Amino acid sequence: MDNNGYTVSKLARMAGISVRTLHHYDAIGLLRPLARTPSGYRLYGRQDLLRLQQILFYRELDIPLEEIHRLLDDPAFEPVAALQEHRRQLRERARRIERLLETIERTIDNLMENEMDDEKVTDAELYAGFTTEQRAQIEEEVAARWDPQIVTESNRRVRNMTRGQWAALKQEGEEVTHGLAGIVDRDPADPAVQALIGRHFAMMNQFYPVTPVIVRGLGQMYVTDERFRANYDQHAPGLADFMQAATAVYADGLEAASQE
């Protein structure tokens, strides 16, 4: 501020309001300028700036101009006490806004998840982490190793899965693998081991009907196919062999149940 005070345009820029607003405040007697130039231009001083600050704080709290006028002209008005109250109320408003923002974020996330859950799983998601060449190799091996009807049924089921269902299956697979890795030192016939193996093949049953023959074949593949062995053994040394042994026990149980 120079010695003559702030012009209306400069004060408006500083306060982030319009010149028209300052003219209105002057017209209703809410904020009179300190002085006027010989040409009639408004000039505002430091006390005017402090009063404008109070006005803007009260306006932020949605208090009508008439009430602000009454408050500021009250002889008992204490600027420091008023600022402390503004601070308290603005902090409370900030907390409410923060809670609203958190609610909005959760709602957006839930809506986006629901939209994703309704979408069909894509090839990119099915073969995440595999190159095009690796994907082609896997498809060739599957076609050569398994009954064509099983392959067709598996592909049909997978193509009908939503992204949400696919994500749930992946999560289940990860939980089962980590669970088995944590008890790899137990007897493969241990009830806790067999319970996890049961979950594993219940998951497999989402792709194709699981029979004792298929269970044994998968168990052998876990140790004879280096990709499967490496995948399991990275979670715990010897997990692939443990999976094969536990799978054999599980297959025995399926066969015994089918003969009852």
Structure in words:
This protein is mainly α and 260 residues long. Helices cover 72% and strands 3% of the residues. A three-stranded antiparallel beta sheet has the order 1-3-2. A hairpin with a 5-residue loop joins β2 (35-36) and β3. The mean pLDDT is 82.
Distance between the termini: 98 Å
The biggest sheet amounts to: 3 strands, antiparallel
Q: What order do the helices and strands follow?
A: EHHEEHHHHHHHHHHH
Give the low-confidence spans: none
Q: List the total number of helices.
A: 13
Beta-strand share of residues: under 5%
**Overall pLDDT score:** 82
Query: In one word, what is the shape?
Result: rod-shaped
Strand order of the largest sheet: 1-3-2
Specify the structural class.
Answer: mainly alpha
The total beta strand count reads 3
Give the oligomer, counting copies of the same chain as homo and different chains as hetero.
single chain
- Portion in helices: over 70%
Radius of gyration based on Cα positions: 37 Å
